[in-house]
Every structure is written in C-alpha cells, then in structure tokens.
Design a protein that fits this description.
Order of helices and strands of chain A: HEEHHHHHH
Shape of chain B: rod-shaped
Helix content of chain A: over 70%
Number of helices of chain B: 6
Distance between the termini of chain B: 193 Å
Oligomer: heterodimer
Largest sheet of chain B: none
Structural class of chain B: mainly alpha
Structural class of chain A: mainly alpha
Number of strands of chain B: 0
Strand content of chain B: under 5%
Strand content of chain A: under 5%
Shape of chain A: globular
C-alpha cells in the first residue's frame, strides 16, 4: 500500500516542481500500446505473445525431426527439457506418474524463464510477470490442476482427509484441517502468484531507481551528484546481473512449487 | 527511461496506472491465459512427443547395441569353447595314433626279428645240410679216389694184375672201413704183401 501511496506523490512532484526527481513507481508498469483502460493492449501482452511465438517456433523447429543423435538445436532444447523433466517433474512427482505433467511444467518453466529474462534483455526490458494478471493466470491454472488431481484421486472427502497427517491426536485434527484447508485454498495460490510477481516488480523497480536516478543526477545534478552517478550506474549494472539471477531462480521456484503441489495431491498419504 | 517520458502524458490512463498493482488488468489476465494455453498445446502436441520418442529410440538403440554386443560375446565364447574342444579332441586323437603307431612298430619289429631269426636258422640249416651233402659227396668221391689211388699205388708196387683181384676181394673197401674205424695199425710196408699172400 505504501508503494501505491508514493505514486501520486511522485506525479505531484513531477508536475509541481518540474525540476524535481520523479521516482519510478508501480504506475510505470502500466504501459498501454493500443487503447486505454482495462482492455488496452499493453506492452507486457505484446511481450507475452512474442515469447509464446518465439518459444513455440524454437521448440517445434528443434524437435520436429528429433533424432537419436541430436543436433545443436535439439541438444539445447533437450538440455532445457531434461532440467524440467528430470530435475523438476521426476524428482518432485516420482517416476511413476510424472510424464503426464511434463508438458505443463515444461511450458510453465519455459514461458516464465523467457518472460522474466525479458526484464534485462534489450530491447524487451520489461518483466511481463511484474503485471499481476500474468502470474494470476498461471497460478489459476496450477490451482485448478492440483485440486482436480487431488479430488480425482482421493474423492472430495478423501482429498480433505489427505490434508491431515495420520496418527494425530483426535483433538488436534480439526485445527490442522482448518489450517491445511486454508493453506491449500488460499495461502498456496496467493504466495505462488505474489512471490514471483513481487520479485519481478520490486527487482525491476530497483533497476529503474538506479538507472533513472543515475541519469537524473548526471543530467540535472551539480558536480557532486554527477560524480556520484558513476557508482550509481555501476551498481545498476551489478543489480542487473543480480536481477537476471533472481529472474531465473523465480521461474524455477514457481515451476518447482507447481510440481510439488501436484505431487502432494497425488501422494497417497499426506 | 520510459517513466520520465510518459509521466506527463499519463493523465488519461491514470485510472489503470494508479490502480493497485496487485489488481489484475482483465486484458492482461486473459491474454496470459489464452497464450499460455496456446503454448501449452504446442508443447504437448508437437514438442514433448517428439522428444520422448527420441528418448525412447535412444534407449532402445543403446539397449539394442548392448544386447547385440552381448550376443556377439556369447557367440565368440561358444566358438572358443568349440575350438578348444576340437583341439583337445585332435590332441587326444594324435596321442592315440602315436600310441598305436608305436605299438604297431614294436609288433612289426618283433615279427621281423622272429622272421629274421627263422630265416637265419633256415639258411644255417640248409647250409649245414649242403655242407653235409657235399662232405658226403666228397667222402664218397674221395673214398673212390683214395681207393683207386691206393690200388694204383699198390698195383704199381705189387704188380700190374692186382687190380682185378683187389676189386674182387673188396680189399680196398675193407681197408678203408678199417681206416675209418681206426682199426688200422701202422705196419711195415713190407708186411702187407706177406699177410695177403
């Protein structure tokens, strides 16, 4: 909330003072390209579509004639595919049933990774996931999938029953059931969407602060500020590298958690 | 960056810009859904099956290769065993033949020796017989000769006519028989005519 409160202040500062530094805020992430309002075609939408087209093209092109001895393209795709298939899906879900969920987890990881990395790759330079609509869309899909699997496997009663570990004292069961139900239906999706969204928004805003701040100091500041802008840009560079790392990690965590939720729904005992 | 450029012109869209960042813009939410769906469909339909097929083929190829290698090894092992068996057989066969040959050789040798022995005996025997025969012959002829010579001598000494008389009376034969039996006593030459007359 405090972030959103800051935004109007920034606008006021910019419009009122004219000379003052206008710090970047969440409002900078609303970038409509065509139209306005909630149905406007925005920059993250364009990036999202570009990523889907580019990824589909790449993956289909490199695997259309998938051979026993892979070429360079197939080899790269396989490396990434193996990370998801073996490193995430098989390890989390277990070798018996994981193959069914590989396409979903693979799509998830690929699209998140590319869209996160758009945050630091010119000319895209915008993390799509910093717009909450996209993580909500993905989280909703994960949410539906793991509940569907759980109910299909255990039945509705059995699914709720599986929330509670066996062997607990009777008086503690209702409390655990309430807590776990809350966790399964509220905490999990909320944290899943918010974690990646918050990381992308805050990380990108941090970069904006360093870059726009450094730029402002260099262009409008006195001699002292001009000198300080040099380490600011240096820090912006370091932060960009750091941000790239976080983007990869967050994409991985999102996929890993999705796999883990699917795995718990599939598990025989909680 | 973008922020500096766009802020003055933000006024018309400020509803969305100033909305809470955790409230989704519906357009973005739906685009997120739809295009993820498209991507998922592409991956599920075209990418994963191809990759999994390649993996399965690879596994099969490796396993097939290993199986083939195993078979080849077994074949080689079998061939080796067969060769060894044949070799052992050949060796025992050779030993048997050698043994046989040695036995045969020994037999032949013994036989030959026996044959030679017989032959030698036979030759010796026949030689002896021949010698005996020749001796007899020699004796016979010698006897006649000696008788004739003796008679000649005696007739020369005694006189011409003694020949016929001596033959008639078998004197010579008797004399020779005596000579053989060793009955002859040395006598003075002069005594014989005296005794005979």
């Amino acid at each position: 909330m405090s972030i959103t409160m800051l935004a109007p202040t920034g606008v006021l500062l910019a419009s009122g003072g004219g000379e003052g530094f206008e710090p970047p805020g969440p409002q900078d992430f609303w970038q409509p390209l065509i139209g306005s309002g909630t149905w406007a075609f925005t920059r993250p939408m364009l990036l999202w579509i570009i990523s889907v087209v580019a990824l589909s093209w790449w993956f289909i092109a490199t695997t259309r004639k998938a051979a026993i001895v892979p070429g360079k393209g197939q080899f790269l795709t396989e490396m990434f595919y193996n990370t998801t298939r073996n490193g995430i899906a098989r390890d989390m879900i277990g070798s018996k049933e994981f193959l069914k969920y590989v396409p979903f987890l693979f799509s998830l990881f690929a699209i998140l990774l590319v869209n996160n990395l758009f945050g630091v790759i010119p000319p895209f330079q915008f993390p799509t996931i910093s717009r909450i609509g996209f993580p909500i869309a993905l989280t909703a899909i994960v949410y539906v999938i793991y509940h569907y699997i759980g109910i299909k496997k255990h039945g509705l009663r059995g699914y709720f029953g599986s929330f509670v570990p066996s062997g607990l004292p009777a008086w503690i069961v209702p409390m655990v059931l309430v807590l776990e139900t809350f966790s399964f239906f509220v905490t999990r999706p909320l944290t899943l969407a918010m974690r990646i969204f918050g990381n992308m928004l805050a990380g990108h805003m941090l970069l904006l602060v360093f870059i726009t701040g450094g730029e402002y100091m260099l262009l409008h500041g006195g001699i002292g500020l001009k000198v300080i802008s040099v380490p600011t840009f240096l820090l912006a560079f370091i932060m960009t590298v750091f941000e790239a790392l976080i983007e990869v990690v967050q994409a991985y965590i999102f996929t890993l958690l999705a796999a883990s939720y699917i795995a718990t729904s599939l598990a025989d005992e909680h | 960056m973008h922020a500096l450029a766009s802020v003055p012109a933000l006024a018309p869209a400020s509803d969305m810009a100033n909305a809470s960042p955790i409230l989704p813009a519906w357009g973005e939410l739906i685009v997120g859904f739809v295009f993820f769906g498209i991507f998922y469909w592409a991956v599920k339909k075209y990418v994963v099956p191809n990759l999994e097929k390649a993996y399965a083929d690879r596994t099969a190829a490796i396993e097939g290769g290993m199986h083939k290698a195993e078979e080849a090894q077994q074949e080689a092992q079998a061939a080796l065993e067969q060769y060894q068996a044949q070799l052992a057989e050949a060796r025992s066969e050779a030993a048997r033949i050698r043994e046989e040959a040695r036995e045969q050789g020994a037999n032949i040798l013994t036989e030959m020796r026996a044959q030679a022995q017989t032959e030698a005996t036979r030759i010796t025997e026949s030689a002896k017989k021949q010698i005996e025969a020749e001796r007899q012959q020699a004796i016979v002829s010698l006897r006649g000769e000696v008788g004739r010579i003796s008679t000649d001598l005696a007739s020369r000494i005694v006189g011409e006519s003694l020949h016929d008389e001596a033959r008639q009376k078998g004197i010579v034969d008797r004399f020779l028989a005596e000579l053989e039996s060793g009955d002859v006593k040395p006598e003075a030459v002069g005594a014989v005519p005296a005794e005979e007359s």
